Each structure stands twice: as structure tokens, then as C-alpha cells.
């Protein structure tokens, strides 16, 4: 009997331990589920906040563009009142267009003298500076969502000949000198560089001064010689193709002339035979 009681006691103890472990596991699972629910809830809140912020950013961009347009129109009106003349405005509305100011400059500029003179004139002539800015904006656009790097090359190729760019580096220092005087400093053309920067910034709002320096220092000026040599080769190849075409055309004309001469000779022979 004593052993049976002892056995029952052990069984009860085992059942109690098992039940206790199950209760503890159930409690942990409940806590884990609660934590997962909280995490998912936090994720949803963060996602909603990010989405809301993105919408606010888009809306702010639209508002900034609208305000810019309003300010531009207001600025034009002020200019008109000051000058007492109704001036035509550009499609972008920033400054009045005066097309005659750029007529004396033939782009692309192809000499150091032309570039230096243009830089000097931009410093002292506000109207020329404004018109030049409008000119660049037409090339790059004003959406703020363009590609400043691509537009930058397009502007450079419009303003400067590829050959003249080989005489420049960003600082004017070069290990390989192209002439006895060495390289000229492109960054010294401060007004010109600044206006190009402002035009590219309107084209692409992600643009900044660091990218601007990199565009010229490590892109346009660093590879100016290669780009110029490539253009020369392309031109030579084109001229060679034209020459070959001309030679082929001349051969065809000679062959045609020979056939006509032979035909005339045959006709003459026939006429002589008829007479005889």
C-alpha cells in the first residue's frame, strides 16, 4: 500500500509540472504574438507617414514652381513699370528678351580672345547677362527634373568649339602643356561659370556646386582633347566618304561620255556607208 501511495504522488507531481510548462509556453506565445502585432502596427504607421511625407514633398515642389512663376511675372511687371515700356517676355518669364544683345557673338566661341571678351562683357552688362541666362534656359529647360550632366555638355558644345576647350583646365595647371603658355584656367571665367551653373540648377534641382566643378574638371575639360580628336577623325572620314563618292560619280560620267562618243562614231560610220 505504501508503494502505491508513493506512485500516485509521483504521477500527480509529473502532471503538475507538465501543466505548469504548458501554461508558461502559452504565456510566452501570447506575449510574442502581442509583440508581433505591435511591430506590424508600427510598420504600418511608419509606411503611412512616409507616404504622407512623399505626398507633401510633391505638393511643396508644385507650390514652389507656382510661386516661382508668380514671382517671375511680378518681376516682369516691375521692370515694365520702371522702364515705361511693355517688353515681350520669354516663355519662362524670368527676364525680358532682347535678342539684339547676343547678335555680335558667334557661337560656338572659338578663340581665347572671344571668350575673355564675352566674360568681361557679362560682368558689366546686366542686360546681356539676363539674355544669356534666358538663352541657356531654352537649351536646358526649367522643369527641375532634367539631367544636368547631359544638358551641361549640350550647353558647352553650343558655347565653345571643341578645339578651344583643349586650351583650358579647371585650375589652369596641367602636366601636359598644349602650348608654351600652358593651360588657361576655366574656373577664372567666374561670371560665365556661374550663369551656366544657375541655368543647370533650374534644369535639375538635384544639381549643386560640387557637381558643377566635377562636370568641368573631370568631364568637359579632362576629355576635351579626346572629344576634339574624335570629331576631327569623324570629319576626315566624312570628307573621305564624300571624296570617294565624287570620284565614283566622275567615273560614271566618264563612262557615260565614252558610250555616247562610241554611239556617235557608230552613227557616223552608218551615215558614211549610206552615202557610199
TrEMBL record:
All residue ranges annotated as the DUF4806 domain in the record: 103-199
Pfam families, per the entry: DUF4806
Keywords recorded for this protein, A-Z: Coiled coil
Coiled-coil positions: 36-70
InterPro entries tied to this protein: DUF4806
Biased segments, Basic and acidic residues type: 249-266
Domain of life from the UniProt record: Eukaryota
Region annotated Disordered, chain positions: 231-276
Name of the molecule in the record: DUF4806 domain-containing protein
Organism: Brassicogethes aeneus
Native organism taxonomy: Eukaryota, Metazoa, Ecdysozoa, Arthropoda, Hexapoda
Amino acid at each position: 500500500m505504501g508503494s502505491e501511495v508513493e506512485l500516485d504522488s509521483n504521477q500527480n507531481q509529473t502532471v503538475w509540472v507538465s501543466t505548469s510548462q504548458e501554461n508558461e509556453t502559452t504565456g510566452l506565445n501570447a506575449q510574442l504574438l502581442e509583440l508581433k502585432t505591435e511591430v506590424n502596427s508600427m510598420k504600418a504607421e511608419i509606411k503611412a507617414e512616409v507616404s504622407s511625407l512623399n505626398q507633401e514633398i510633391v505638393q511643396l515642389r508644385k507650390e514652389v514652381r507656382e510661386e516661382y512663376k508668380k514671382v517671375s511675372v511680378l518681376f516682369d511687371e516691375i521692370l515694365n513699370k520702371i522702364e515705361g515700356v511693355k517688353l515681350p517676355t520669354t516663355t519662362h518669364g524670368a527676364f525680358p528678351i532682347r535678342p539684339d544683345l547676343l547678335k555680335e557673338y558667334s557661337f560656338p566661341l572659338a578663340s581665347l580672345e572671344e571668350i575673355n571678351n564675352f566674360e568681361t562683357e557679362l560682368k558689366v552688362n546686366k542686360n546681356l547677362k539676363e539674355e544669356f541666362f534666358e538663352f541657356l534656359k531654352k537649351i536646358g529647360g526649367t522643369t527641375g527634373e532634367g539631367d544636368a550632366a547631359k544638358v551641361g555638355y549640350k550647353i558647352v558644345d553650343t558655347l565653345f568649339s571643341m578645339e578651344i576647350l583643349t586650351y583650358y583646365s579647371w585650375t589652369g595647371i596641367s602636366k601636359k602643356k598644349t602650348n608654351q603658355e600652358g593651360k588657361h584656367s576655366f574656373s577664372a571665367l567666374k561670371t560665365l561659370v556661374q550663369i551656366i551653373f544657375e541655368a543647370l540648377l533650374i534644369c535639375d534641382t538635384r544639381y549643386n556646386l560640387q557637381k558643377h566643378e566635377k562636370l568641368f574638371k573631370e568631364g568637359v575639360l579632362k576629355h576635351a582633347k579626346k572629344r576634339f580628336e574624335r570629331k576631327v577623325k569623324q570629319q576626315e572620314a566624312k570628307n573621305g566618304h564624300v571624296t570617294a563618292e565624287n570620284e565614283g560619280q566622275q567615273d560614271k560620267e566618264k563612262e557615260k561620255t565614252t558610250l555616247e562618243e562610241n554611239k556617235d562614231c557608230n552613227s557616223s560610220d552608218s551615215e558614211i556607208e549610206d552615202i557610199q
